[in-house]
């Protein structure tokens, strides 16, 4: 195990590297728990998600401190973006060497920070370690695997994640089952997710299906987007569809005429509080997002994940999530809307109790002693 200066010193401390909206939700309870312990910490925003709707609104909603460092890297291809991230992070870590770098999830900012820190001999902690879809066509899967191999401390959200890490030869003393910090954020804000108020403010129908799609496999191929648009129009024949459109897929869905159906309501990207309120008030959710699979598990909202696999199978065994193909999306959703499926199965996943941030903070503050 690598060694570092004591956490909490004024010369070296904990640097949280965040870059995209899922990172912000996961980091918020960890930052808050460490603040309560008096740890010296810095929030570094890479700027992977950079406009107000995808970034700044999340900091406001979640009570995260304004980033101490903002690299402003922006978008680009995987290679160009990751390269720019690594250059910016290397400069920052060389000028202000952290005692520990904490990375979150599976975005390009995560793998870039892990690579740079490892090469500089800086310890790395990975929050949400061990998730596996076993689908290497997903860029996120590559990011997860490499980040876990480079990390000194690995925080797992579920028992199967611990098993995956063991199967890959990760030493058990590096792995900590802590639960899911994203659920800390969800449970801590339950009384702020006002579906009725959002419905009134945005003039939404009483009953609707919420949709969110942004994965490359779903939105990068115009022909595929055209087929998905047909399926969403078929859903809209049954019930209204409300879809905040991620910037990644906006042009393709516009070209396919998604908004042409009178019962499809397209929205700009929503902040955290509004998005979860939209999810909470939905009759069902159609998504390809990992975080939405987790949130609907706790909210008890039927979730149809438009993917052939998931790195979060616990949301199927302990939640309301179902994997669906384009072909079976409509019949499965019809059953959900008719009340014939989509009920919660089993109990809430272990340790998804709102205290994951505290568990992570406890390990981080003890790690170098």
TrEMBL record:
UniProt domain UDP-N-acetylglucosamine 2-epimerase: residue ranges: 38-364
Its EC number(s): 5.1.3.14
SUPFAM superfamilies xrefs: UDP-Glycosyltransferase/glycogen phosphorylase
Domain of life: Bacteria
Membrane keyword on record: no
Keyword Isomerase in record: yes
Group of enzyme by EC: isomerase
Pfam families (alphabetical): Epimerase_2
MF terms (GO), sorted A to Z: UDP-N-acetylglucosamine 2-epimerase activity
Keywords: Isomerase
Family the UniProt entry places it in: Belongs to the UDP-N-acetylglucosamine 2-epimerase family.
Family annotation (PANTHER family): UDP-N-ACETYLGLUCOSAMINE 2-EPIMERASE
Protein name: UDP-N-acetylglucosamine 2-epimerase (Non-hydrolyzing)
Organism expressing this protein natively: Nocardiopsis metallicus
């Amino acid at each position: 195990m690598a060694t570092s200066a004591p956490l909490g010193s004024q010369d070296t401390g904990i640097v949280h590297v965040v870059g995209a909206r899922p990172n912000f939700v996961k980091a918020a309870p960890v930052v808050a728990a460490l603040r309560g312990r008096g740890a010296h910490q810095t929030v570094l925003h890479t700027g992977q998600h950079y406009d107000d709707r995808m970034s700044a609104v999340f900091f406001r909603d979640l009570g995260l401190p304004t980033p101490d460092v903002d690299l402003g890297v922006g978008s680009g291809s995987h290679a160009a973006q990751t390269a720019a991230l690594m250059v910016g992070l290397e400069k920052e870590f060389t000028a202000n060497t952290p005692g520990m770098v904490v990375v979150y999830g599976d975005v390009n900012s995560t793998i870039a920070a892990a690579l740079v820190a490892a090469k500089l001999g800086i310890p790395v902690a990975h929050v949400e370690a061990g998730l596996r879809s076993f689908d290497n066509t997903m860029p996120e899967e590559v990011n997860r695997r490499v980040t876990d191999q480079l990390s000194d401390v690995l925080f797992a959200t579920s028992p199967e994640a611990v098993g995956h890490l063991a199967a890959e030869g990760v030493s058990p003393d590096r792995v900590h089952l802590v639960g899911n910090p994203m659920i800390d954020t969800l449970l801590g804000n339950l009384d702020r997710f006002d579906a009725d108020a959002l419905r009134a403010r945005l003039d939404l129908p009483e009953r609707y299906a919420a949709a969110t799609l942004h994965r490359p496999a779903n939105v990068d191929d115009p022909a595929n987007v055209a087929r998905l648009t047909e399926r969403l129009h078929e859903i809209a024949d049954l019930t209204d569809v409300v879809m905040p459109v991620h910037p990644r897929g906006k042009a393709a869905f516009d070209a396919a005429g998604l908004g042409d159906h009178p019962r499809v309501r397209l929205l700009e990207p929503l902040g955290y509080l509004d998005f979860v309120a939209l999810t909470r008030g939905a009759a069902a959710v159609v998504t390809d997002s990992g975080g939405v699979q987790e949130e609907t598990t706790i909210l008890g909202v039927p979730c149809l994940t438009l993917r052939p696999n998931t790195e979060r199978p616990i949301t199927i065994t302990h939640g309301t999530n179902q994997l669906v193909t384009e072909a079976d999306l409509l019949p499965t959703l019809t059953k959900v809307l008719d009340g014939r499926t989509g009920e919660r199965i089993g109990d809430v996943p272990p340790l998804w109790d709102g205290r994951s941030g505290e568990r992570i903070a406890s390990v981080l503050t003890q790690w170098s002693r």
